[in-house]
Amino acid sequence: MARYPNLWKRGDRYYVRVRVPTDLRLVEKREHIAISLGRSDQRDAVRRYRDVHGKIEQQFEATRAELAGRDAITKALNEGRLEALSDIQAETLVRGWFDAREHLRKPSLGPGDEEERLRLLLEDRARLDEMDPAAADVARNSADRLLADAGAH
After folding, report:
1. Spatial contact of 35 and 16, defined as CB atoms under 8 Å apart
2. CA distances, 96 to each of 56, 142, 145 (Å)
3. Which sign does the torsion angle of CA 82, 83, 84, 88 carry?
4. What are the b/e assignments for 88-112, b being 16+ CB within 10 Å?
5. How confident is the model at residue 69 (pLDDT cuts 50, 70, 90)?
6. Confidence tier at 152 by pLDDT (50, 70, 90)
7. What residues are paired with 34 via a beta bridge?
8. 9-23, 49-63, 135-149: which range is least confident on average?
9. 93: Cα separation from own chain's centroid
10. What predicted TM-score, i.e. pTM, was given to this entire model?
11. Burial of residue 145, with CB atoms counted within 10 A of its CB: 0-12 exposed, 13-18 middle, 19 or more buried
């Protein structure tokens, strides 16, 4: 099986098992993709190996092409690299976040608004807790500028 490095036997079945490339890890959460060849005979499995392995590689390339077509902000978010954003891009991101929560800044609370507001705040806090410290600084600085522009500081 040395000629087929991703051919893997588990129990009596053969699989193609491929490690997800590091550049796709934030999109594909699994560390490996494993697809059953539906065969217990090694010769039969080897016959199907190239086709299935090729399809996995094609999917990786399609995902890369899709990511390449996205704008810089989305790409930086997908890669978890907010520090790669320019100040203007970071401000655009923060302004979008701020504007999307316009309905939560209304002075009157209706029944059930408190739970929604708390849910969104907890989601935001969880995202900030997961964020790289350098990226968090960019987000905080942009948020501070927006709040200062709005007269909140």
Report:
1. yes
2. 35, 12, 14
3. positive
4. ebbbbbbeeebeeeeeeeeeeeeee
5. low
6. low
7. 17
8. 135-149
9. 16
10. 0.48
11. middle
Q: Is the pLDDT of residue 143 over 60?
A: yes
Helix, strand, or coil (residue 41)? coil
Beta strands in 13-134 (DSSP E): 13-19, 32-36
- SS3 breakdown of the chain: % helix, strand, coil, rounded to 5? 60, 10, 30
Euclidean distance between CA atoms 146 and 92, whole angstroms: 10
> Half-sphere exposure (CA, 13 Å, Cβ side) for 67?
17
Question: What is the per-residue pLDDT for 97?
Answer: 80
Show the tokens assigned to 153: 């500081």
Tokens 């900030």 correspond to what residue? Answer: 128
Task: Give the residue carrying structure tokens 């790669």.
Answer: 84
